[in-house]
Amino acid sequence: MWNHFLLSPLEAARYVDEFNSPWVGWHFDVGNVITYGWPEQWIHILGKRIQKLHIKEFSREKANKEGLWKGFDVEYLKGDDNWSSVMKALDDIGYEGWGIAEQPGAGSPEGLKKLSQEMDRIFAS
Predict the structure, then answer these.
(1) Which residues fall within 8 angstroms of residue 100, CB to CB, at 6 or more apart?
(2) To 10 degrees, what angle do helices 39-46 and 83-92 make?
(3) Which range of residues forms the domain containing residue 26?
(4) Angular region, 12: left φ>0, alpha ψ -120 to 50, beta rest
(5) Per the domain annotation, does 43 fall within a domain?
(6) Is residue 67 classed as helix, strand or coil in its secondary structure?
(7) Structural domain count of the chain
(8) Which stretch of DSSP H or E encloses residue 112?
(9) Are 60 and 34 in contact (CB under 8 A)?
(10) What's the pLDDT tens digit per position in 4-44?
(11) In a domain, 3, yes or no
(12) Is residue 4 a part of any domain in this protein?
């Protein structure tokens, strides 16, 4: 994705489908797609192809001001992910898998507790 291989959800869906295998799917990263569109649209188009989920925040404003990679340097719920729309889209496609926290701040018990609380808020959206 960040190598500009697949830049749209339609391309991504076609790519997975061309394998014609139940063993090939998409590991969807919510934060990574924000520079290419809206995560909820990607989720609706990828649908059942999504096998795993990365929960990551991204700030377009921070990326525009400080450089693309700085867009990831933002806490959960303080970026541009519309978590209620993302969670609704995941419900719409029947996603029942797990989500991996991919966010800085887990370097201490307090940091882990904060991440856990933020993820609880995201999942409850």
Answers:
(1) 52, 53, 54, 55
(2) 10
(3) 9-123
(4) alpha
(5) yes
(6) coil
(7) 1
(8) helix 109-123
(9) yes
(10) 788 999 999 999 999 999 999 999 999 999 988 999 999 99
(11) no
(12) no
